[in-house]
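User: Here's a chain of 358 residues. Predict its fold as tokens.
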Amino acid sequence: MSTLRVSAERLTIHEHPNADALELAQVGLYRAVVAKGAFRTGDFAVYIPEQSVLPDALIDELGLTGRLAGSAHNRVKAIRLRGELSQGLVCVPKSLAGVDLARAAGDEEDFAERLGIVKWVPPVPVSMSGDVESAPDLLPWIDIEHLQRYPDVFAPGEPVVVTEKLHGTACALTYHAGSGTTQVTSKGLGSQGLALKDDGKNLYWRAVRAHGVPEAAARLAQAFGATRVGVFGEVYGAGVQDLAYGADARRGGPAYAVFDVAVEAGGQVRWLDPAETAKALGEELPRVPELYAGPFDAGRILELATGRETVSGRDLHLREGVVVRARTDRWSPELGGRAIAKVVSGAYLTRKGGTEYE
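Assistant: Prediction complete.
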């Protein structure tokens, strides 16, 4: 998931092709459906992103009672309105009526706390939970932001690598070369400095054991002279999420694919470039499919996020989206971290009966 930020944004307004009373307000590369005439191009408004959970008073004020997602009807989710994808909410809450939104945009002010908006945290199934222990020396996975929200992360023409984003659950493994020990955690637990105790019933431990990830991490540590190695992969298959890619995590070992590797040497942690990861792993561990390597073009990336999955080789179902990385790993001033972003397809976001476990 990405971080929650409720911000003031400058709008660009587009006609809605299928509704006379509606328009499309563009924020970054996102578009949200709004009432016609509510805003003009150049206006500033508050953008509330997907996966935001709103307080009842704000829901009532915006006229959205009973219309949002979740059992409490309080979660912002992508929807299609008269055929157009609407992602997030564009509004000017009454409590911010006296705020200079243009200045707030320039200051990158976050209104989430002021408006009582929090980030939705998906439920954790029993198979993904387990006993935990403190693990302050983990190499945790990071939140990846949406390219549509941060369209300037990559410069036009910059060399990038695009991989398929899989619908599973992120598994973070840290290997400690000094002690030869391995720690395994989920994305959510890792962000809290917690590791899962070794348990043959736990989904993450089953996955790394079945695919020999601890042994591969030990070899990576030796190859790079690393004191710590982080191997980050997606665990997937039937029994994990609703999109299974033809795999069944309930029988035998769950399916697994590496999407990133980090090594610590000389006290410095660095992420391996995509080509470096491919060379280092070879055929030892499965990796997420690479869909494109070449100059960055936002339109091309948005196109790649749609279509059918390529993991199974059989186009079994829709594609969740893509992840974009700089070909040579670098710092992004726009993100304040790695130059990496994701695009999630509209078809995936609006599918029926989907599961969203982190």
